[in-house]
Specification:
Helix content is 36%, strand content 22%. By secondary structure, the chain is of the alpha+beta class. It has a domain at 88-258: Aminopeptidase, CATH 3.40.630. Strands 1, 2, 3, 5, 6, 8, 9 and 10 form an 8-stranded mixed sheet that branches. It has a two-stranded antiparallel ribbon with strand order 4-7. Strand 5 (118-126), helix 5 (135-150) and strand 6 form a beta-alpha-beta unit.
Length: 261
């Protein structure tokens, strides 16, 4: 009995064995939507017209035109191996859907009219047990493989601050606007118009500390933000549009993004 208990402890404490791949089956897609539901609905309090509360699935009208990149932990039960998700929507999928998801919040004309190869990233999430570790790095590296294969030039998508109190977020948003605003040729704008007063930031350390980790990670890779924010009351978030122009990345940033495991 003691030996069995020790074996069980080893299984529980086993280091993750990560793998990434695109969803292939309806079961894969439901697994991704189930993880999205745990995070965006149960954890963050989001909702939407197509969210399936009965089955615990976070869905919307863009899912049928997009692909889902999965992060798997192969040490888990096969039915519960999906621990991270990125939803990918290219220009072909956006055309079939009628628009990119981000176009509901931001005017993407500078990107859409650029003639460059675009890919929208959305619904990025990690299982709570895998945050702060190597999970996001592996998910990014899986994304980098897709980007290389499809010769994507610009990645973009909505990224969120939790909550809708603009006064509470004003300092962090002002810092992003001051230091990381996108160049004009790729600068998208919020459809909501000006909502934030970008006052000078005196305590930059605190302002950056309050920026979500995912946004900070993209900034380290050379990412930019669009002009303005969009308050998404359904998801209880304040959104910025992140843009990563691969041509503007330094060699060091490229190695950070798509380097060897």
């Amino acid at each position: 009995m003691r030996k069995i208990a020790e074996m069980n402890d080893q299984m529980v404490n086993a280091a993750p064995q990560f793998a990434t791949r695109l969803a292939k089956t309806a079961e894969d897609n439901r697994g991704a939507q189930a993880l999205r539901y745990k995070i965006f609905v149960k954890e963050m309090g989001g909702d939407g017209p197509l969210v399936d509360h009965g089955n615990g699935l976070e869905c919307d009208a863009f899912d049928e035109h997009a692909e889902q990149l999965l992060l798997l932990d192969l040490t888990r039960d096969p039915a519960d191996q999906i621990v991270g998700v990125y939803r990918l929507l290219d220009s072909k999928g956006a055309k079939a859907a009628g628009q990119f998801y981000s176009e509901t919040e931001f005017d993407l004309a500078p990107l859409v009219q650029s003639g460059r190869t675009l890919m929208e990233l959305g619904r990025s999430c990690l299982h709570a047990e895998y945050r702060g570790g190597a999970g996001m790095l592996h998910l990014w590296q899986g994304l980098a493989e897709v980007v290389r294969e499809r010769q994507v030039e610009v990645l973009f998508g909505v990224a969120s601050f939790h909550g809708t109190d603009l006064d509470a977020l004003a300092t962090s948003l002002a810092l992003l606007h001051d230091k990381h605003l996108a160049p004009e040729d790729i600068r998208v704008c919020s459809r909501s118009g000006p909502q934030v007063s970008y006052e000078p930031v005196t305590d930059r350390v605190t302002a950056m500390r309050n920026v979500p980790a995912l946004i900070k990670a993209y900034l380290r890779l050379g990412g930019f933000i669009g002009d303005g924010v969009f308050v998404d009351h359904a998801f209880n978030t304040t959104d910025v549009c992140l843009i990563l122009d691969l041509a503007r990345m330094s060699p060091k940033q490229v190695s950070m993004y798509g380097g060897a495991r």
